[in-house]
Amino acid sequence: xxxxxxxxxxxxxxxxxxxxxxxxxxxxxxxxxxxxxxxxxxxxxxxxxxxxxxxxxxxxxxxxxxxxxxxxxxxxxxxxxxxxxxxxxxxxxxxxxxxxxxxxxxxxxxxxxxxxxxxxxxxxxxxxxxxxxxxxxxxxxxxxxxxxxxxxxxxxxxxxxxxxxxxxxxxxxxxxxxxxxxxxxxxxxxxxxxxxxxxxx
Length: 201
Fold this sequence. Notes:
This protein is α/β, with parallel strands linked by helices. Helix content is 38%, strand content 19%. The protein has seven helices and seven strands; from the N terminus they run βαβαββααβαβαβα. It has helices at 15-28, 64-69, 86-93, 96-101, 122-135, 148-152, 176-199, and strands at 3-9, 33-39, 72-80, 83-84, 108-115, 139-140, 162-165. Strands 1, 2, 3, 4, 5, 6 and 7 form a seven-stranded mixed beta sheet that branches. Strand 1 (3-9), helix 1 and strand 2 form a beta-alpha-beta unit.
């Protein structure tokens, strides 16, 4: 049985996108699991501004069907004052119809983030991203300390989800431990989704 994991993210400087790609590699390490990368358009303070239907580059924009048909979800956002970025929040605010249908109930979910400063609100951002997922009835999973990189990291990485420290000038690439934890997060959600599929057969 195939298992489709949606990796839904917003990225401004590219670091969150790189994390999403590492999560996707982890998903596809699990036999029978498929990673589906989707992003969301930026929001504008100009009322008349609108994004094109398809972005000029990178992953395509997510739609409600992507959420409805996924077997698991991994959500990623840069940190904005200790919270998820507005474009991702705006997208999630539009998922009421799925909530009414219970479309995401009992599906596994996880979160990841990137910050400019080392103590820039990574954990509060990850927790803020979990809130709408819990309201949707999803099963939120973090990273267990059985992942060796979680105890070795000197930059990003939390038990609440994968994280990255980009530096104040956004020039710091993902290091080995940060990448390992992104991969581990994707692999874990894929395994959980497959296990839950078996339970509900």
